[in-house]
Amino acid sequence: MNDGRWINRLVETSSPEETxxxxxxxxGELRAGDVLVLEGPLGSGKTVLVRGIVAGLGGDSRLVxxxxxxxxxxxxxxxxxxxxxxxxxxxxxxxxxxSIGWESFAGQEDAITIVEWGSRISDVLGGDTLVIDAxxxxxxxxxxxxxxxxxx
Length: 152
Hints:
The protein has 152 residues and is of the alpha/beta class. It has helices spanning 16-27, 46-56, 102-105, 122-125, and strands at residues 9-13, 35-39, 72-78, 81-87, 111-116, 130-136, 142-146. It has a seven-stranded mixed beta sheet with strand order 1-7-6-2-5-4-3, covered by helices on one side. Helix 1 crosses helix 2 (46-56). The longest helix has 12 residues, at 16-27. The chain is globular, with a radius of gyration of 14 Å.
């Protein structure tokens, strides 16, 4: 992922629709095999951003929900690509990943893997990931630091 496609930048959105649009624009920069980590507090727009990414890749954004309780969801975006959306909020560390079948989907050649709360499993992710740090700036406005460093 550190192949020059991602330039560190801050993007502020003022509504969920703008966050979806941001995700759609980021989708064009993602490739099969990429791992994207989304960090930020609850309600900071991480799942809304995923909706935009899935839509931007040609998938059905209505299928995207927070995987906090299911831990992992898979969204087909076209016949040769899927998005695997993982939420590590309830994961205590890399040892818990076996329970969600991490080995079966992490880094698949036909998938883009998006991990919310990825810093909880940073030892497993390695260094070749894109990190987006999301934050609140108001009731409906959010800020996204694209290319942030993952907390260890």
